[in-house]
């Protein structure tokens, strides 16, 4: 079974792009084949983390993976060994531009190999994903509910419309890198380019920053959202609201909001999948003679028929009295276990009646031997 991409990079599912990139850079440096010559385990680890990064660093691929898992991204990321370079790069095509990108991620530098130059980074940055923890009553998880929540998040500045510049003024070309996004210098046989420290790789500068957001393009606000919880959710269920996370910087795409549900335990019922379980006490006479019991369910009272001669621990199913199937029709069952309660306080009349009953229905108390079929069952159990 393929490993979870988030576990491969040791990040949470709500990790931001920068957190994913940092995690990948650390692992790539640790497991790079050139640093571990002849170590096949390290090489496989490097390919695995490169494959995970190739998916999680792409917003569309990441969204598909979050929803459908490995099937949503067509299994392994494309590409094989990095041809022509020692050790290879799993998950990348192996051309010089790809090699430059990899070195840029790992070492913060761009190696110009065979004339492949660096690329200017976009000013736009995707907003961070956010997490909101919501606690539900047991009944709310079974029947569904709606609730308004308030989330503090970064939103696009309305004064500058998310550009970061005052009065709609366009950013100016960076004076240090002249719009390239990188500054270059020669190092041995390589022409090395580093991200321009002045414009942070965007190639432009805001000369007249917005006074409200101070050129950051975003401001912190409290956002109200109506959360609809469907019937049948379980403890730990995540509901994804696309685009409801933090706004992207400089008109970049917004992140997502993940509402994570925690369900309180019930005093009477426990849940197993879509089935509910409970224990109902019955008296000795009810077990011996049978009875019709009115028991509580989450939907109201229901009748349980207990046949005569019922033993303690016997279970009965009430069809359709369980939890609704999530996003589909039908319900689970209510499984009722009856337990015979032995009275602890008896008056004289009750004791006399029970003694008379005991004389009429005595039971041989010698230990029972297992039959041959019982021993066969034990061998296979």
From TrEMBL:
SMART domains found in the cross-reference section: DnaJ
Residue span, CR-type domain: 144-222
Keywords, ordered alphabetically: Chaperone, Cytoplasm, DNA replication, Metal-binding, Oxidoreductase, Repeat, Stress response, Zinc, Zinc-finger
First and last residues of each zinc finger (CR-type): 144-222
GO MF entries: oxidoreductase activity
Pfam families per UniProt: DnaJ, DnaJ_C, DnaJ_CXXCXGXG
Note on how the cofactor is bound: Binds 2 Zn(2+) ions per monomer.
Binding-site positions, Zn(2+) 2: 174, 177, 196, 199
Binding positions (Zn(2+) 1): 157, 160, 210, 213
Subcellular location: Cytoplasm
Main localization (coarse): cytoplasm
Listed SUPFAM superfamilies: Chaperone J-domain, DnaJ/Hsp40 cysteine-rich domain, HSP40/DnaJ peptide-binding domain
Domain J: 4-69
Cofactor: Zn(2+)
PROSITE patterns per record: DNAJ_2, ZF_CR
Annotated family: Belongs to the DnaJ family.
Assembly: Homodimer.
Domain comment (free text): The J domain is necessary and sufficient to stimulate DnaK ATPase activity. Zinc center 1 plays an important role in the autonomous, DnaK-independent chaperone activity of DnaJ. Zinc center 2 is essential for interaction with DnaK and for DnaJ activity.
Functional summary from the UniProt entry: Participates actively in the response to hyperosmotic and heat shock by preventing the aggregation of stress-denatured proteins and by disaggregating proteins, also in an autonomous, DnaK-independent fashion. Unfolded proteins bind initially to DnaJ; upon interaction with the DnaJ-bound protein, DnaK hydrolyzes its bound ATP, resulting in the formation of a stable complex. GrpE releases ADP from DnaK; ATP binding to DnaK triggers the release of the substrate protein, thus completing the reaction cycle.
Name under which the protein is recorded: Chaperone protein DnaJ
